[in-house]
Amino acid sequence: MANFELSDIPLLSRSTLDRAEHLRSDAQALTQGWSDAALLRVTRGGQVRVVDKQLVLDEALDLGTEPTADAVFLGVDSGRHVWAVYTKELVGELADLRMVGAILDDTSAGILTTAVALLNWHNKARFSSIDGSPTKPANAGWSRVSESSGHEEFPRSDPAVICLVHDGADRVLLARQTVWPSTMFSILAGFVEAGESLETCVVREIREEVGLDVTDVRYLGSQPWPFPRSLMIGFTAIGDPDQPLAFSDGEIAEAHWFTRAEVREALAAGDWTSSAGVRLLLPGSISIARGIVTAWAASD
Predict the structure, then answer these.
(1) CA–CA separation, 137 vs 148, rounded Å?
(2) Which of 13, 15, 14, 33 is nearest to 23 (CA)?
(3) CA torsion sign, 157 to 159 to 160 to 165?
(4) How many whole angstroms separate alpha carbon 221 and alpha carbon 13?
(5) Per-residue pLDDT, 35
(6) I need a labelling partner for 58 at 20 to 30 A (CA). Which of 12, 74, 132, 251 fits?
């Protein structure tokens, strides 16, 4: 079957958090909301406290009587403001987004995904890209301003395409990066270059990584991937299994065409965290790659 659609919203795209962007520049409203606001503490490694599959949120007032400069405003949940802040260390049951993203409810998933993405950006944007001067947070953490020129910069998302290549029938191309164990495979991905459309990027990346020419590039869906600040944009394309593969850029160690039956067996076996002993392991459910492969496997 040449065409298929994602059967579910990607797990990190299902946020129901009200981002309340109109409040970011309203200092009075933010200060008023701070009195009973919730605070998510995140370590530099992206870990948070989790109890019974729920995020642990502290009282924002623990930081002080008003919003601090290093706290970022995430939005509003059930009328309550939600903020996040970096912390040096946490005590208790800790987990990161990869570990718990799949089990959190929609709002909590949005809170954690946004917090990690925004805090990662702040960590990398402490100096102006214009003149190199120090920057300071503004708009409740949604921009940074140069201390010398006043130039304002905003959070970045780096677009990357991720594409399932199939033959229009019963086979799909899966690849293994050189740093992955011998059984771990996924679909192909790469960052969009300057001046390049998403569709052109799909064609270029697949040719560069495995030497394959593809056609019928079609959009499927997207998902934030805050590791550190990517946006994964999913596609499907058709390739010819008879065309020889070539791994010229050094990123891909091997790639093979797998049948739909083999993919279904791999999906049933679990994911990359599963035990060894099988030929093929696929990414976990937090990745849009898993959703794309699952949709293709069920498309006949």
Answers:
(1) 14
(2) 33
(3) positive
(4) 9
(5) 97
(6) 12
Nearest 5°: the CA angle 110, 116, 118 is 95
- pLDDT(1) > 70: no
Instruction: Check if the beta carbon of residue 60 is closer than 8 Å to that of residue 81.
Output: yes
What is the radius of gyration, based on Cα positions, of the chain? 21
**Residues 6 or more apart in contact with residue 11 via CB below 8 angstroms:** 101, 102, 109, 223, 285, 286, 291
Question: pLDDT tens for residues 122-138?
Answer: 999 999 999 999 999 99
Q: What is the pTM of this model?
A: 0.94
Q: Pick the range with the lowest mean pLDDT from 71-75, 139-143, 276-280.
A: 276-280
User: Tell me, what's the pLDDT at 28?
Assistant: 97
- Indicate if 158-297 has the same CATH topology as 11-124: yes
As a three-state string, the secondary structure of the chain is CCCCCCCCCCHHHCCCCECCHHHCCCHHHHHHHHCCCEEEEEECCCCEEEECCEECCEEHHHCCCCCCCCCEEEEEECCEEEEEEEECCCCCCEECHHHHCCCCCHHHHHHHHHHHHHHHHHHHCCECCCCCCEEEEEHHHCEEEECCCCCEECCCCEEEEEEEEECCCCEEEEEEECCCCCCECECEEEECCCCCCHHHHHHHHHHHHHCCCEEEEEEEEEEEECCCCEEEEEEEEEECCCCCCCCCCCCEEEEEEEEHHHHHHHHHHCCCCCCCCCCCECCCCCCHHHHHHHHHHCCC
CATH of domain 158-297: 3.90.79.10
Q: Where are the domains of the chain?
A: 11-124, 127-156, 158-297
CATH code assigned to 11-124: 3.90.79
Structure tokens at 72: 């970022």
Question: Roughly what angle, to the nearest 10 degrees, separates helices 260-269 and 288-297?
Answer: 130
Chain-centroid distance, C-alpha 299:
25
